[in-house]
Amino acid sequence: MSGSQKYLIWFVVVAVIVLGGVYLMQSDSDTTEGEATVNDEIGETQPVFDEEALGEDSATNVYYEGEDGVYSYSPSEVVVKAGESVSFVNNSDTDFWPASAFHPTHTNYPESDIAKCGVDNDVDLFDACVPLAPGGTFTFVFNEVGTWGYHDHLNSSATGKIVVE
Protein backbone atom coordinates (compact mmCIF):
# COMPACT_ATOMS: atom_id res chain seq x y z
CA MET A 1 0.00 0.00 0.00
CA SER A 2 1.45 3.36 -1.00
CA GLY A 3 1.86 6.32 1.36
CA SER A 4 -0.91 8.24 -0.39
CA GLN A 5 -3.32 5.31 0.01
CA LYS A 6 -2.55 5.14 3.75
CA TYR A 7 -3.13 8.90 4.04
CA LEU A 8 -6.46 8.60 2.22
CA ILE A 9 -7.60 5.76 4.50
CA TRP A 10 -6.56 7.76 7.60
CA PHE A 11 -8.43 10.81 6.30
CA VAL A 12 -11.61 8.77 5.66
CA VAL A 13 -11.47 7.21 9.16
CA VAL A 14 -11.05 10.63 10.83
CA ALA A 15 -13.87 12.10 8.68
CA VAL A 16 -16.23 9.28 9.70
CA ILE A 17 -15.35 9.79 13.38
CA VAL A 18 -15.87 13.56 13.16
CA LEU A 19 -19.15 13.29 11.26
CA GLY A 20 -20.40 10.66 13.70
CA GLY A 21 -19.52 12.97 16.57
CA VAL A 22 -21.41 15.88 15.05
CA TYR A 23 -24.44 13.62 14.55
CA LEU A 24 -24.31 12.34 18.13
CA MET A 25 -23.92 15.83 19.54
CA GLN A 26 -26.91 17.07 17.54
CA SER A 27 -29.11 14.15 18.53
CA ASP A 28 -28.27 14.26 22.25
CA SER A 29 -30.70 16.66 23.88
CA ASP A 30 -29.79 15.56 27.43
CA THR A 31 -26.70 17.71 27.98
CA THR A 32 -25.38 18.21 31.47
CA GLU A 33 -23.23 20.77 33.22
CA GLY A 34 -19.71 20.94 31.75
CA GLU A 35 -20.63 19.55 28.34
CA ALA A 36 -20.02 21.36 25.07
CA THR A 37 -22.39 21.45 22.11
CA VAL A 38 -21.87 22.57 18.52
CA ASN A 39 -24.07 25.18 16.84
CA ASP A 40 -23.74 24.09 13.20
CA GLU A 41 -25.29 27.26 11.81
CA ILE A 42 -22.25 29.32 12.73
CA GLY A 43 -19.72 26.60 13.57
CA GLU A 44 -19.70 27.62 17.23
CA THR A 45 -19.21 25.37 20.21
CA GLN A 46 -21.11 26.53 23.28
CA PRO A 47 -20.56 25.36 26.86
CA VAL A 48 -23.60 24.09 28.71
CA PHE A 49 -23.21 25.28 32.30
CA ASP A 50 -24.38 28.02 34.60
CA GLU A 51 -21.99 30.89 33.85
CA GLU A 52 -23.37 32.95 36.75
CA ALA A 53 -22.36 30.22 39.19
CA LEU A 54 -18.76 30.46 37.94
CA GLY A 55 -18.59 34.23 38.28
CA GLU A 56 -17.49 36.86 35.81
CA ASP A 57 -13.76 36.35 36.39
CA SER A 58 -13.77 32.65 35.55
CA ALA A 59 -13.86 32.98 31.75
CA THR A 60 -10.64 33.53 29.79
CA ASN A 61 -10.48 34.10 26.04
CA VAL A 62 -7.70 32.93 23.73
CA TYR A 63 -7.91 34.36 20.22
CA TYR A 64 -6.87 32.54 17.04
CA GLU A 65 -5.63 35.32 14.77
CA GLY A 66 -3.83 35.90 11.51
CA GLU A 67 -4.27 35.91 7.78
CA ASP A 68 -2.68 34.66 4.56
CA GLY A 69 -1.41 31.42 6.11
CA VAL A 70 0.25 32.96 9.19
CA TYR A 71 -1.79 32.17 12.31
CA SER A 72 -1.22 32.06 16.07
CA TYR A 73 -2.99 32.05 19.41
CA SER A 74 -3.04 35.22 21.52
CA PRO A 75 -2.16 35.05 24.29
CA SER A 76 -0.23 31.86 23.69
CA GLU A 77 -0.11 31.11 27.43
CA VAL A 78 -2.78 31.68 30.06
CA VAL A 79 -3.07 30.79 33.73
CA VAL A 80 -6.44 29.73 35.18
CA LYS A 81 -7.69 28.08 38.33
CA ALA A 82 -9.04 24.53 38.25
CA GLY A 83 -12.72 24.62 37.27
CA GLU A 84 -12.40 27.75 35.13
CA SER A 85 -13.22 27.84 31.45
CA VAL A 86 -11.16 29.01 28.49
CA SER A 87 -12.87 30.06 25.26
CA PHE A 88 -10.90 29.70 22.03
CA VAL A 89 -12.26 32.38 19.67
CA ASN A 90 -11.63 32.31 15.92
CA ASN A 91 -10.70 35.87 14.88
CA SER A 92 -8.93 34.67 11.72
CA ASP A 93 -9.96 34.39 8.08
CA THR A 94 -9.87 30.57 8.07
CA ASP A 95 -11.25 27.58 9.96
CA PHE A 96 -9.46 26.37 13.07
CA TRP A 97 -9.68 23.31 15.32
CA PRO A 98 -8.37 23.89 18.84
CA ALA A 99 -7.25 20.72 20.59
CA SER A 100 -4.93 19.38 23.22
CA ALA A 101 -1.34 18.75 22.14
CA PHE A 102 0.13 16.49 20.69
CA HIS A 103 -0.59 16.62 16.98
CA PRO A 104 -2.24 14.54 15.56
CA THR A 105 -3.40 12.46 18.56
CA HIS A 106 -4.55 15.22 20.99
CA THR A 107 -3.57 13.15 24.04
CA ASN A 108 -1.78 15.72 26.28
CA TYR A 109 -4.82 16.62 28.45
CA PRO A 110 -6.08 13.67 30.56
CA GLU A 111 -8.68 11.54 28.79
CA SER A 112 -8.37 13.55 25.55
CA ASP A 113 -7.70 11.68 22.32
CA ILE A 114 -8.84 12.45 18.76
CA ALA A 115 -9.99 8.84 18.51
CA LYS A 116 -12.64 9.64 21.17
CA CYS A 117 -14.23 12.44 19.12
CA GLY A 118 -17.80 11.52 18.35
CA VAL A 119 -18.26 9.00 21.12
CA ASP A 120 -20.47 9.46 24.19
CA ASN A 121 -17.67 10.61 26.49
CA ASP A 122 -16.36 13.37 24.19
CA VAL A 123 -17.66 16.03 26.60
CA ASP A 124 -14.47 15.60 28.63
CA LEU A 125 -12.17 16.13 25.64
CA PHE A 126 -9.97 19.18 25.31
CA ASP A 127 -10.72 19.01 21.60
CA ALA A 128 -13.27 20.85 19.44
CA CYS A 129 -13.44 17.64 17.33
CA VAL A 130 -14.51 19.69 14.29
CA PRO A 131 -13.18 22.68 12.33
CA LEU A 132 -14.75 25.97 13.46
CA ALA A 133 -15.43 28.76 10.98
CA PRO A 134 -14.25 32.36 11.46
CA GLY A 135 -16.22 33.80 14.36
CA GLY A 136 -16.72 30.38 15.98
CA THR A 137 -15.68 29.49 19.51
CA PHE A 138 -14.82 26.41 21.52
CA THR A 139 -15.07 26.59 25.32
CA PHE A 140 -13.56 24.05 27.68
CA VAL A 141 -13.59 23.82 31.49
CA PHE A 142 -10.15 22.88 32.83
CA ASN A 143 -10.54 20.70 35.91
CA GLU A 144 -7.09 19.07 35.89
CA VAL A 145 -4.17 20.92 37.52
CA GLY A 146 -1.05 21.08 35.34
CA THR A 147 0.41 22.65 32.22
CA TRP A 148 -1.45 21.63 29.10
CA GLY A 149 -0.18 22.27 25.59
CA TYR A 150 -2.61 22.83 22.74
CA HIS A 151 -2.53 23.45 19.00
CA ASP A 152 -4.67 24.05 15.92
CA HIS A 153 -5.24 20.64 14.37
CA LEU A 154 -5.54 22.24 10.92
CA ASN A 155 -2.29 24.23 11.38
CA SER A 156 -0.17 22.37 13.93
CA SER A 157 2.47 25.13 14.07
CA ALA A 158 -0.03 27.35 15.95
CA THR A 159 0.44 26.32 19.58
CA GLY A 160 0.07 27.53 23.14
CA LYS A 161 -0.37 26.34 26.70
CA ILE A 162 -2.86 26.53 29.52
CA VAL A 163 -1.50 26.50 33.08
CA VAL A 164 -4.13 25.25 35.55
CA GLU A 165 -3.46 25.97 39.22
Keywords summarizing the entry:
165 residues; alpha+beta; Immunoglobulin-like; 4-stranded mixed sheet; 2 helices; 10 strands; 18% helix
Give a short synopsis of this structure.
This protein has helices spanning 3-27, 51-54, and strands at residues 35-39, 44-48, 59-67, 70-74, 77-80, 84-90, 98-100, 137-142, 146-152, 155-164.
Protein described:
The protein has 165 residues and is of the alpha+beta class. Helices cover 18% and strands 37% of the residues. The protein has two helices and ten strands, in the order H-E-E-H-E-E-E-E-E-E-E-E. The chain has helices at residues 3-27, 51-54; strands at residues 35-39, 44-48, 59-67, 70-74, 77-80, 84-90, 98-100, 137-142, 146-152, 155-164. It has a four-stranded mixed sheet with strand order 4-3-6-8, with no helix packed on it. Strands 5-10-9-7 form a four-stranded mixed sheet, with no helix packed on it. Strands 1-2 form a two-stranded antiparallel ribbon.
Radius of gyration: 15 Å
Poorly predicted runs: 22-58
SSE order, one letter for each helix or strand: HEEHEEEEEEEE
The assembly state of the depicted protein chains is single chain
Instruction: Name the beta content range.
Output: 35-45%
Distance between the termini: 47 Å
Shape: globular
